[in-house]
Amino acid sequence: MSMSMDRLFNSIIFPGLKETIVMHLVSCAACFVIGLVFAILLVTTDSRGLRPNKIVYGIVSTIINVLRSVPFLILIIAIIPLTRAVCGTVIGTNAAIFGITIAASPMVARLLESSFKEVNPALIEAARSFGANDFQITYYIIIKEAVPSAVTNMTMAVVNVLGYTAMAGVVGAGGLGAVALTYGYQNFDDLVMYSTVVVLIIMVQIIQWVGNKIYEKVK
Amino acid sequence: MIEIKDLYKQFGNTPVLQGINIEIKDGDIYGLVGVSGAGKSTLLRCINGLLPFEKGSLKVDGVNIQTLNGKKLREFRSTIGMIFQQFSLLERMNVLDNVCLPMRCLKYDKKKMLEKAMENLELVGLADRTKALPRELSGGQKQRVAIARAMALEPRILLCDEATSALDPNITQSILELLKKINRESNITIVVVTHQMEVVKNVCNKMSILSQGKLTISGEVKDIFLNHPESLAELLGQSVEFPKKEGKVYVEILKSAQGKDGENVISKMALAVKVPFDIVWGGMDKYRDDIAGNLVVEFEESDWEAVKKFLETKNADWRLV
Under an 8 A CB cutoff, do B82 and A129 touch? Predict the structure, then answer.
C-alpha cells in the first residue's frame, strides 16, 4: 500500500537523506585523510620514490590490496568484531562510518597514489637541484602539482563512497539504503524504492558537477 | 672551479662515464658536447650531486661532493643553479611563485624573497608577467623564468641541460645572449650541455666532447672547431666532401676578427710565390665574441713547398685539409 507523498518525504526520505549525508561526509573526510597518508607512504617508499623502502611499500601495498580484494558487503560483515570493539555497536551511523572508512580508504589511497605518480619526475629533479628537502618536494611538487588529477579521482571516490553508504543499509546502517531496503524492497513499495533511487541519482549528479567545477578552477 | 678527475659512473652494469677528466675555471662558459647517450647530462648531474658516481673525484671550489650528504648536500646544491630542456616549471604556480620557490624552500624572509624574485624577473625581461601561469608563456619565456628561478639563490655555477634544444633559432639566440650577460655581469661559471654546435660556438669559451662515456677532446672552442674538425665528425653528421684531385694540395687559411690582422696573406702569396691556385670553398663562423673566416685553396703538389715556406714566414693560420 502506497503512502502519501508528504509522509513519504517528510517521515522517510528526508530523515534517510540526512543520515546518508552525515555518513557520506564523515566517511569521505576520514577516507581522504587515511587515503592521503597511505598514498604519500606509497609514493615515497616506491622504488622510484624519494625514500625507496621495499619493506614499508610491500606492507602498505599488501594491506591495501587485501582490503580492496574483498567485496564491500562481505568486508563490512567480516569486520563486525572490529567494528563492535571500536564503536561498541555494529548498527547505526557510527558503525557504518567505521566500516565504510575501512573499505573505501584503500581505494582512495590507490587513486591518490596514481595522481601523485602522474607528476612529472623532471619537476622533482628540478626541486632537488635547488636544494628542496623531501618534505618540501612532497608538499610543493608531488601534492600541489597533482591537485587537478586528484580532484578528478576524488570525485570518483566520493561517488563510490555514496554507493557504499547505500549498501551499508543492508547491514544495519540507516540512510537511504535502509529506507530503500525496509520500506521499498521488503514492503513492496515501488514509490519509496524509486524515490530513493532518484534522490541518489540527483546526489551523484551534484557531486559530479561540483567535482567538475573544482577541476576547472584548479587545473 | 670544478675539478673532475678520473670519474666513472654506471647505471646497473652499463658504464655511462669512463674516466672523465675535466677542469672548469671560474667564469668559464664550458660546453659539454656529445650525441644522445654520450653521458653529458649524466656528467652534469654528477656536478651538483643529483647523481652519485662510483669512482673518481669531483670537487667544486675544493669541496669533494662525495663527502656531502643529507642537509650539507642540499645546501651545496642551493649554490648551483640548474635549467632544463623542458623548463621544469610548476604548472600550477604563477611566474612569481615559481621564481620564489627555491627561496621559500630555503626559508628566505618574505620581503627579501619578493625583492630578489622581481630583480631576477627584470634581469630576464619578464617583470610584467609575474601573475602569468607557465601555460600562458612561450617556450623562450618559460626558459627565462627557469633562469630567473635558477638564479634566485645567487648561485656560483649555472648548469644548463640542453636548455635551448626545445627552442627555435631566434629564441635560442636570445637565451644565449642572456646567459652571456649573466656570465659577464655576475661572473658565474656556466656549464652548457648541448648537442647543438651553434650553441657551443656562440656562447662557450671552452668545451669537451664526449663519445660513449669517454672524453675525446677538451680545449678552447675555436681551436677545436678550426684545428680538430675530425673530433666533431660524430656530432656534425655526414658533411659534403669536396672531391680532391690527384696531384693537388688543399690548404685552409683562417682569419679571425680578433686574430692577426693586416697580413693580406692570400693576395701577397699570389704576388710573392707566383704559383697558380684555385679557391675551392670558404665560410665564416661566429665563436662567442669572435668571428672567424676560412678559405680553402687548391695548389699543384709541386708548388706546395714554396707556398708552405711563404705561409710560415707570414706566420699565417693555416692547415692542410
Answer: yes
Chain B residue closest in CA terms to A144: B92
A130-182 pLDDT per residue, tens? 999 999 999 999 999 999 999 999 999 999 999 998 888 877 778 888 888 78
Q: Indicate the residue of B82, B88, B104 with minimum beta-carbon distance to A123.
A: B88
Residue extent(s) of CATH 3.30.70.260 domains in chain B = 248-320
Looking at the complex, does the CB of residue B149 fall below 8 Å from at least one CB of chain A? yes
Number of domains composing chain A: 1
Element containing residue A79 per DSSP (H, E): none
Stretch 30-49 of chain B: residues touching chain A, C-beta under 8 Å? 48
Task: Taking the CA atoms of B288, B290, B291 and B292 in sequence, report the sign of the dihedral they define.
Answer: negative
Give percent of chain B with pLDDT exceeding 90: 55
Q: What is the pLDDT of residue B114?
A: 95
Q: What is the mean pLDDT of chain B?
A: 89
Cell numbers linked to B159: 648548469
Q: Is the pLDDT assigned to residue A39 strictly greater than 90?
A: yes
pLDDT computed for residue B179 by the predictor: 93
CB of A134 within 8 Å of a chain B CB? The answer is no
- For residue A52, give the CATH number of its domain: 1.10.3720.10
Residue A5, in any domain of the structure: no
| Cβ contacts of B17-21, under 8 Å, gap ≥ 24 | B17/B42, B17/B43, B17/B46, B17/B53, B17/B213, B18/B213, B18/B214, B19/B56, B19/B214, B19/B215, B20/B56, B20/B210, B20/B214, B20/B215, B21/B215
Q: How many CB pairs under 8 A join A and B?
A: 65
A141 in B contact zone (CB under 8 Å): yes
pLDDT at A1 over 50: no
Confirm whether A8 is domain-assigned. Answer: no
* For testing contact with chain B, the best of A51, A129, A141 (most B CBs within 10 A): A129
- Topology of domain B248-320, CATH: Alpha-Beta Plaits (3.30.70)
Interchain proximity A131–B153, CB inside 8 Å: yes
Domain holding A151, by residue range, is 13-218
Distance of CA A81 to the CA centre of its chain: 22
The ipTM (two decimal places) reads 0.82
In a domain, A29, yes or no: yes
Report whether A112 contacts B55 (CB < 8 A): no
Among B74, B76, B80, the residue with its CB nearest the CB of A133 is: B74
Contact A100, A33 (CB under 8 A): no
In a domain, A7, yes or no: no
- How buried is B287 (Cβ within 10 angstroms: 0-12 exposed, 13-18 middle, 19+ buried)? buried
- Whether domain B2-235 has CATH 3.90.650.10: the reply is no
Query: Is the Cβ of B91 closer than 8 Å to some Cβ of chain A?
Result: yes
Task: Identify all chain A residues contacting B82, using CB atoms and an 8 Å cutoff.
Answer: 126, 129-130
Q: Which of A48, A119, A130, A137 to mutate to test the interface with B (most CBs of B within 10 A)?
A: A130
pLDDT for B190-214, tens place per residue?
999 998 888 999 899 999 999 889 9
